[in-house]
Structure formats: C-alpha cells, structure tokens
Amino acid sequence: MARTLTKSNAHWHKANRRLPLGVASNFRYWGEDRTIYVKEGRGARLTDLDGNVYVDYRLGYGPSILGYAHPEVDAAAREGMKVGGVFALSTERELAVAERIARMVPAAEMVRYSNSGTEAVMAALRLARAYTQKDDYLILEGGYHGLFDAAMWYTPMENWSRQGEPEVKPYSEGIPVGIRSYAHFVQANDLNALEATIQKHADRIACLLIEPIMGNCLGIAADPEYLRAARALCDRYGIVMIIDEVKTGFRVARGGVQELYGIKADLCTFAKCVGNGYPLSVLAGREDIMRKLGKGVAHGGTFTAHSVSLAAAEKCLDILENTDALERVARFGERLKAGITQILNARGIVHSFVGHASMFGLYFDERPPRNYRDWKNSDYHFYDAVARVLHDEGVLCEPDSREPWFISAAHDESCLTDTLKGFTTAVDTVLNAAAPSVKA
Ligand SMILES: Cc1ncc(COP(=O)(O)O)c(C=O)c1O
Prior knowledge:
Oligomer: single chain
Radius of gyration: 22 Å
Number of helices: 12
Largest sheet: 7 strands, mixed
Order of helices and strands: HEEEHHEHEEEEHEEEHEHEEHHHEEHEEH
Bound molecules: pyridoxal-5'-phosphate
C-alpha cells in the first residue's frame, strides 16, 4: 500500500505553532513526517486525514474494547448527555454502575470514580498510605501506573549493559528527586527479592502497586504462584495490595486480571475499558479501607462521574458482562497470534508471545520474558522495523515493542485477513533490507 501522509504532515506544521509537538499528548508525536491525525474511528479501524484506513491494534492504548463509535454505547452516552453533565452533586447512576462493578469484581466492595487511570492510581496510593500510616511503596520494574510524580520512575533498559543494577531515572524533568526514596523497585516474578525488600523495609511500606499482566511492558505476566505469594506477603506484613487493572480491567476477563488469577486485591483501579473510551476511572476495594475516603482522606474532582461517561460505562459494562464480547476478543487474539506465528515460522524467525490474547506482546526470542530485563533478549530492532512498515501497510500497532497489541470485539475476519497480509509484507520488506539482524 502506498501511504501518503500529505495532509497529516501539513496539519502537523500548523498544529506545532500552537500545540507543543503539534499534539495533545507527547506519545502521539511520531515525528514531523509520521505523526497521524485521525479523521474518524469506526469499529476496529481508523481513517486519517489523508484517507488512509488502518486496522488498529492500539485502540487508544486499550479503551475501545467494543470498537470505536459503538452504536449502543454512544446512544447511551447521548442519553447521559440529557442528564446534564456534572453538578457538584451526585446522581443515581453512580450507584447502578458501582453495583455492577461490585458484581463483576468481587474485590470492589466499595467504589469511587475519577476521570483517568492516573487519578485512580494516585488516589489508591494516597489511600493506602493513609490507611497504613506509612509512606513507601513497592513497584515492579517496567511497570507503568500513570503520569503522576510518585509513579514516574523508569529504567532505560536499552542502555543497560546487563552488568549490575540498571539505573532508575525520573521519567520527566520536573520530578523532585527527593521523592524517589519512597519507591522500592522489584523485578517481576522474583519472589526472593520481593520478600527480602519487604523484610528490609516492612516498617515503611504502605503498599505493593502491581499489574499482574504488565500492559506497558509487553504484557509480561506474573506467575500465579508469584502473585499468590505476593498476596500472602502483603497479608503477613500489613501491606495494601493495589492491583492496577487500568489496562486489564474488563478486558482479560469480566472480573479482570483478578478473576484470571483467582486473587483479590485490597484496592484496585480501572479505567480504559470501563466506558469503551469515555473518560471514567474507578478506585475500588475493601470496605474498611475505602471508608477512609472522606474520613481523613481527600478524594473528588469537578468532572468526577460526568453523566455522559457514567451512562456510557453502564452500557459498556452491561455488554461486557452479558454478551460473549470478551470471548470473541480473546478468540480473535488467538487467531491473530496463530497467523503471525505461521508467517514467522515459514521464515525461520524465532519468536514468542507474552500476556493475554486480548493484549499480547510480540517478542523475538524463543522463551517469553519473565521480567523487564528479559526484554533485552528480544530482537526489538526487528520489531521496530516491522512496525514501521506495518503502519505503511495499514496496520497500526504501537511503534514501541514494549506496548502490547490490543484487540477489540470489533476486530473481524476482514481485519484478520488485512493484518496478516500486511504482516507478511512488513516481515518480507524488513528481511529484504540488509540492516536489521534477525535471530533465526
Ligand atoms: C496500568 C496503567 N495504570 C495507569 C495508567 C494511567 O492511565 P491514564 O493514561 O488514563 O491516566 C495507565 C495508562 O496507560 C496504565 O496502563
């Protein structure tokens, strides 16, 4: 497919005069000549300003679990608009949605709303600190929990020489280095390290913030035994276990990753799929902890529980709970993985998949990674090169190999055919170009 981005490029030059990097979020800037401006999204496809149509596996970083412009969710949102917005007062629907969440997620004994995943995780951390009267927290290396200072530490793994410990850096300028000392990092699936860190700092650690399937790190999955042992350690040491389900929630199962693993968080956070893309996030958890909200712990916000988002969430969760949407999502993911494997195997390209079928990472090494450091074993330069051609071929995956591919219930047979055709072209194009090294 000969893709031109003439109109997107022209728009970028105009936008850059008023919007830093020409975009509304740093992550949407893909360079002067490859930044895409969307005209519309329908189902599992996006159309850009130039009329290029893409099968989309980014789904806005996950939210569109039912597909873009879902007729029933949008109709519900329009009904929600009739309620009138936000009032600095509550509406009845807040309870209706909370009741459904509690039914789908047993850990959600009580529920509060916010607008973004960041806000929900930020509130969870504050609440855990208040409940335990401790300040420190544990995070998994490679985990991402939003754009607030306490969670914005990252490990530039691409620079790590495999000797000693990789450095941990603030993800942005403007983050006070003084707050770094509150965070303790552990590698996924290393139970000994987790236990040792907890034993060493137990008197200071308020919570473990964990994504059992790391949605920003290939979908690296916790071993069930690791997660069970982490749960037991939290119980033993009075540490609040916060399961961040911003990406996995209402996606990998009706009850999220907690249902998959048969584990209950003390607090959990949801956002992306709650309202199929309408901004609504959720902080939920144990009643004795949640009851501290308003009794010493601040939580709120002008736009919290907007009538449009709430109505969209009510419909979206109804569909997710009562139809086979999530089974279809997973089935498509399995078929896509099988198709990709066929193409790669035929060319002798060693690879594996990580995560859940509804959000999987494509990894160019034989054995799937068990922690972020393993990402270095993947031939990620090959991934990067393939992703670039895929975009030209009308298949939109994340250019960064650490981000999983997201599936929606709107991905259908034609999406599968188009994707595998594009994938074949992309792989062959990269193989025929001399530069990248491919492990065969
Ligand atoms: C696991 C996780 N937590 C929190 C967030 C932050 O959510 P938001 O971007 O809605 O603020 C994200 C975003 O990708 C996420 O994946």
